[in-house]
Amino acid sequence: PTEHMNHHDIIHNGEAYINNVNESTYEITLSNLKHFYFVGLFENYQKDVQRLVNKIYKNYNLEKYTRKVEIPHLNKTTNNDLFLTQELKEKLIANNKYDIMLYEHIKEKN
After folding, report:
1. Which residues contact 10 (CB under 8 A, 6 or more apart)?
2. 73-95, pLDDT tens digit by residue?
3. Residue 9: how many CB atoms within 10 A of its CB?
4. Torsions phi, psi of 7, nearest 5?
5. Residue 49: which H helix or E strand, with range?
């Protein structure tokens, strides 16, 4: 069942829940997050990479990493490059309810 999966597919105990995201599958996703070593957000990429490096050094009892991780941000998009009508924004929010909830959860934990 995992051959044609997209971002709305959830795998739990080897079983795929394709395009059937609901409160139950969202809770499974939150539970699965506990098994990840690290979860970061692209919008905080440099900061999150630095946190990951620090976590790795700490977990493996390595000497403290003192250099700042610097990652160039290429091809940056500004809000001026995007135009979304209010109707489209509302549809995107409605169709991605659980993605947004997951994003907010991760953002809060970071």
Report:
1. 16, 17, 21, 25, 28, 29
2. 777 766 665 677 889 889 889 88
3. 16
4. -70, -10
5. helix 45-59
